[in-house]
């Protein structure tokens, strides 16, 4: 591997960590639980602050520290970094689809125009939240064209 390949890989892994943090912010209330709203706010604020300066030296490492600070978030983040999606999009229980030529429907991603928050729709009846940092409606990411 050349140094260019190594730097490309580092950029890719840093971007995966940033996306994991963006998506984790939407899941914090569910992961930490309703009995700890102060902890949810604290973690959300720390992630938002780090995401406000994604190119800062060591930003990805500091984000990983936050993502590893609670066992539930650590497990969630490890799954996200492995699959690129929140666990609720890939762990659907023991459902077996009907035989045939069905295919998985990709998760629809919504993001804050300021790029510090992302939310993935798991079910069609879900409405995207507003960005907790900026109060703006989230923007739907267009799927790649064929």
Q: Overview of this structure, please?
A:
By secondary structure, this protein is mainly α. The protein is built from 5 helices and 3 strands; from the N terminus they run H-H-H-H-H-E-E-E. The chain has helices spanning 3-32, 37-51, 59-67, 71-83, 87-90, and strands at residues 108-111, 118-121, 139-140. A 3-stranded antiparallel sheet has the order 2-1-3. Helix 1 (3-32) packs antiparallel against helix 2 and helix 1 crosses helix 4 (71-83). The radius of gyration is 16 Å and the shape is globular. It starts with a helix and ends in a 6-residue tail after the last strand. Residues 1-11 have low confidence and may be disordered.
Q: Terminal Cα separation, in Å?
A: 31 Å
Strand order of the largest sheet: 2-1-3
Q: Summarize the main sheet.
A: 3 strands, antiparallel
User: Kindly state the mean pLDDT as a whole number?
Assistant: 84
Shape category: globular
Order of helices and strands: HHHHHEEE
Give the count of helical stretches: 5
Pick out the low-confidence regions. 1-11
Give the radius of gyration: 16 Å
Percent of residues in β-strands: 5-15%
Fraction in helix: 40-55%
Q: Can you count the beta strands?
A: 3
Classify the secondary structure makeup into a structural class: mainly alpha
């Amino acid at each position: 591997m050349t140094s260019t390949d190594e730097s490309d890989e580092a950029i890719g892994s840093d971007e995966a960590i940033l996306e994991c943090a963006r998506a984790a912010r939407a899941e914090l209330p569910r992961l930490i639980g309703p009995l700890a709203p102060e902890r949810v706010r604290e973690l959300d604020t720390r992630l938002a602050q780090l995401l406000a300066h994604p190119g800062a030296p060591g930003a990805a490492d500091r984000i990983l520290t936050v993502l590893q600070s609670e066992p539930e978030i650590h497990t969630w983040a490890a799954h996200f970094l492995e699959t690129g999606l929140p666990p609720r999009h890939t762990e659907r229980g023991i459902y077996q689809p009907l035989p045939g030529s069905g295919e998985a429907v990709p998760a629809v991603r919504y993001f804050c125009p300021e790029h510090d928050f992302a939310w993935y729709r798991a079910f069609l009846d879900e409405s995207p939240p507003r960005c907790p940092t900026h109060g703006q409606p989230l923007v739907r990411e267009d799927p790649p064209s064929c």
